């Protein structure tokens, strides 16, 4: 779960991490009253879950209220790479001496938290990591120890920064690590971390990712997720504890299975044949007839999809349940889309009988590769 | 032989009185696994399917000399369950649950390394040594005894592979479900030395996927220490790219780590045979003499 900048800022404020004073608006009516406490000039920043908003015109400066009204009205409602701007974060502008980069990430290699720091922060940090990797420092944190004072000392010393910032950096690391642990984060990133003209470290932007598996114990993050505009099918699928995965926008094949590994294998094989997968749905466990029916309804309500490949291999999954679910779904389908079904598990013969009794465009296939070959043979026929 | 579990394994089921725990205890007993104890706090003194239930893992170990535990409890109780098993002196602990918070597993991982405990999972089907014992929830009917050792990040891709192998008369020495989580208790490099040392395992099959660096680490290890043929599948070449926020991911992956291309390249350099589909694994296995 990626948090938007304004939500990250809320958390930073909660942990007394220095940020700029700001407000969040979602309509222009609130602007004047909310902005009355701010000191101009200010920066208005579009809140979208996609990178590159600055280049798309989603970040603008304003020297007074009139200008702020103008830029706010131009950014709210703007389309940035398919994301409509619904919220705007407006913060006071800061005179900046230098831009650093600081993050804590859950590193898959060392299986623990890792600090990444650079004294050359800002938009080009990824380029710096490629061209001058020695300028981007990485240091693991032992989760059984936490942040110790030698860590900020190492970061400043190794990167040739002034030790005058030691106390501030130590304090900052301590706070973001505390937040990283308490909020089940897999990423806390401050870029840029700036030095102001009066030598204070300030977090000017924030990117925070929270572990989805931990949302049950992070009620305010869960609430934030529910408030987000998301793909309607993703939300609808989530209601049934399915995972709906949008793939290629113009894909006309859909894949449904009971595990992410099998879904990836199906997409790989279908792509090898030159077909495009438009969506996938992971059923998770518990493939009962009712759930199968709902899953088919959800994935086929994507109007681009012409063919659906259902591939269920659960061992203890009952094939007759799967087949009954397909039957129920087909009876309610408005369009005659092709459904290929492949299953392995218990009661397979009974399941096959049910599939054969369905009046509709349903084909049983025996095996993963056979299913993909069948899709290939039938593409363009619908 | 086989690795990790066999007919001498004395297994504890943590969460034995739960619906899943009871159902799979029955399955494991039916398969011949020696389930010697169950643990559910507050249910000590009861019996489930003839298996004595204890309040704590320590009591279960003291009374039954158990040496392995499989944990069938919900995600939020998984880490405490692993700690209890480790502190009771067990050296092999398997966890099944999906959606265990990754910070919990991070702490479990580091504690387990310090205590020299092997943790498998979470989000894993467990471990099976066909014909001998199973600990987990895999559908054992599709497995058959043989000399191919399998380790997999994905349950469904492993089932698919095993199903086709068994249909073609090729069996398995042991199948290990690493689980699909960001921080698994054990990864390929933890299991490779066991398969390399196991006289019964002739070929090793590794079912990986995009993301993380487990396959890259395995490639380094194989190059140095593994003499047996290894076949690898990397699933997810055409998976939709996740929306990744921030720059940290790109900085960590600046050398290409995580992509299917990088994994296959590193594995090829280590002499690993690359399969492009589950079915292709079987085709390659059939070209290796002595595979059965």
As a percent range, the share of strand residues of chain B is: 15-25%
What would you report as the Rg of chain B, rounded to the nearest angstrom? 19 Å
Could you give a short account of the major beta sheet of chain A? 7 strands, antiparallel
Kindly state the percentage of residues in helix of chain A. Answer: 25-40%
Gross morphology of chain B is globular
Look at the helices and sheets of chain B and give the structural class: alpha/beta
Sequence of secondary-structure elements of chain B: EHEEEHEHEHEEEEHEHEHEHHEH
Structural class based on helices, strands and sheet pairing of chain A: alpha+beta
What would the CATH topology of the largest domain in chain A be? Rossmann fold
What is the total tally of β strands of chain B? Answer: 14
Rounded mean pLDDT score of chain A: 92
Mean of residue pLDDT of chain B? 94
The CATH superfamily of the largest domain in chain A turns out to be Succinyl-CoA synthetase domains
Q: How many H/I helical runs of chain A?
A: 13
CA distance, first residue to last residue of chain B: 15 Å
Describe it for me?
Chain A has 13 helices and 19 strands. Chain A has three domains: 72 residues, ATP-grasp fold, A domain (Dna Ligase, domain 1, 2-Layer Sandwich); 124 residues, D-amino Acid Aminotransferase, Chain A, domain 1, CATH 3.30.470.20; 146 residues, Rossmann fold. Chain A is α+β, with helices and mostly antiparallel strands. The two termini of chain A are 38 Å apart. In chain A, the strands form four sheets. In chain A, strands 1, 8, 9, 10, 11, 12 and 13 form a seven-stranded antiparallel beta sheet that branches. Chain B has 292 residues and is of the alpha/beta class. In chain B, 35% of the residues lie in helices and 22% in strands. In chain B, the strands form two sheets. In chain B, strands 3-4-2-1-5-6-7 form a seven-stranded mixed beta sheet, sandwiched between helices. In chain B, helix 7 runs parallel beside helix 9. The longest helix of chain B has 14 residues. The radius of gyration of chain B is 19 Å and the shape is globular. Chains A and B meet through strand 8, strand 9, helix 4, strand 11 and helix 9 of A and helix 4, helix 5 and helix 8 of B.
């Amino acid at each position: 779960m990626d948090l938007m900048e304004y939500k990250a800022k809320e958390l930073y404020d909660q942990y007394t991490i220095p940020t700029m004073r700001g407000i969040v608006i979602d309509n222009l009516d609130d602007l004047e009253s909310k902005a009355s406490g701010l000191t101009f000039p200010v920066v208005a920043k579009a809140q979208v879950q996609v990178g590159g908003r600055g280049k798309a015109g989603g970040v603008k400066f304003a020297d007074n209220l009139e200008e702020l009204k103008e830029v706010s009205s131009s950014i709210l409602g703007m389309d940035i790479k398919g994301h409509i701007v619904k919220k705007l974060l407006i913060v006071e502008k800061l005179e900046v001496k230098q831009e650093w980069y600081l993050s804590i990430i859950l590193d898959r290699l060392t299986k623990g938290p890792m600090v990444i720091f650079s004294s050359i922060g800002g938009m080009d940090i990824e380029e710096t990591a490629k061209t001058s990797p020695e300028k981007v420092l990485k240091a693991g944190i032992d989760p059984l120890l936490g942040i110790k004072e030698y860590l900020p000392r190492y970061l400043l010393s190794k990167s040739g920064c002034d030790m005058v910032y030691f106390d501030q950096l130590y304090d900052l690391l301590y706070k973001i690590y505390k937040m990283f642990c308490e909020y089940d984060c897999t990423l806390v990133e401050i870029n840029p971390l700036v030095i102001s003209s009066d030598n204070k470290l300030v977090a000017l932007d924030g990117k925070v990712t929270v572990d989805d598996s931990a949302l049950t114990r992070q009620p305010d993050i869960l609430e934030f997720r529910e408030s987000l505009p998301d793909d309607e099918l993703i939300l609808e699928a989530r209601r049934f504890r399915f995972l709906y995965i949008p793939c290629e926008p113009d894909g006309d094949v859909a894949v449904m299975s009971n595990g992410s590994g099998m879904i990836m294998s199906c997409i790989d094989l279908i792509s090898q044949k030159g077909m495009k997968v438009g969506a996938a749905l992971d059923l998770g466990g518990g493939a009962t007839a009712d759930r199968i029916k709902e899953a088919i309804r959800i994935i086929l309500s994507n109007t681009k999809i012409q063919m659906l490949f259902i591939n269920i291999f659960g061992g203890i999954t009952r094939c007759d349940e799967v087949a009954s679910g397909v039957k129920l779904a087909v009876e309610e389908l408005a369009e005659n889309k092709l459904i290929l079904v492949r299953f392995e598990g218990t009661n397979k013969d009974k399941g096959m009988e049910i599939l054969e009794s369905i009046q509709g465009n349903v084909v049983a296939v025996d095996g993963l590769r056979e299913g993909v070959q069948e899709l290939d043979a039938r593409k363009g026929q619908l | 032989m086989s690795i990790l579990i066999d007919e001498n394994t004395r297994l504890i089921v943590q969460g034995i009185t739960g619906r899943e725990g009871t159902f799979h205890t029955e399955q494991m007993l039916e398969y011949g696994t020696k389930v010697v104890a169950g643990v559910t706090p507050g249910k000590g003194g009861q019996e489930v399917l003839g298996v004595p239930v204890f309040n704590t893992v320590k009591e279960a170990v003291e009374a039954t000399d158990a040496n392995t535990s499989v944990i069938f409890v919900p995600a939020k109780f998984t880490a405490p369950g692993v700690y209890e098993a480790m502190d009771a002196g067990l050296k092999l602990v398997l966890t099944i649950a999906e959606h265990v918070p990754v910070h919990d597993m991070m702490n479990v991982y580091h504690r387990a390394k310090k205590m020299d405990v092997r943790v498998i999972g979470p989000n894993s089907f467990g471990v099976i040594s066909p014909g001998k014992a199973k600990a987990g929830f895999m559908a054992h009917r599709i497995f058959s005894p043989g000399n191919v050792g399998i380790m997999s990040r994905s349950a469904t891709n492993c089932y698919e592979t095993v199903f086709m192998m068994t249909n073609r008369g090729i069996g398995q020495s042991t199948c290990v479900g690493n689980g699909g989580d960001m921080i698994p208790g054990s990864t390929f490099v933890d299991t490779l030395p066991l398969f390399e040392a196991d006289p019964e395992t002739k070929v090793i099959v590794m079912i990986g996927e995009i993301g993380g660096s487990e396959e890259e680490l395995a490639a380094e290890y194989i190059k140095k220490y593994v003499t047996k043929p290894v076949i690898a599948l990397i699933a997810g070449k055409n998976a939709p790219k996740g929306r990744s926020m921030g720059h940290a991911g790109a900085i960590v992956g600046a050398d290409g780590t995580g992509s299917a291309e990088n994994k296959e390249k590193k594995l090829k350099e280590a002499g690993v045979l690359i399969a492009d589909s589950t079915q292709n694994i079987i085709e390659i296995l059939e070209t290796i003499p002595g595979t059965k």
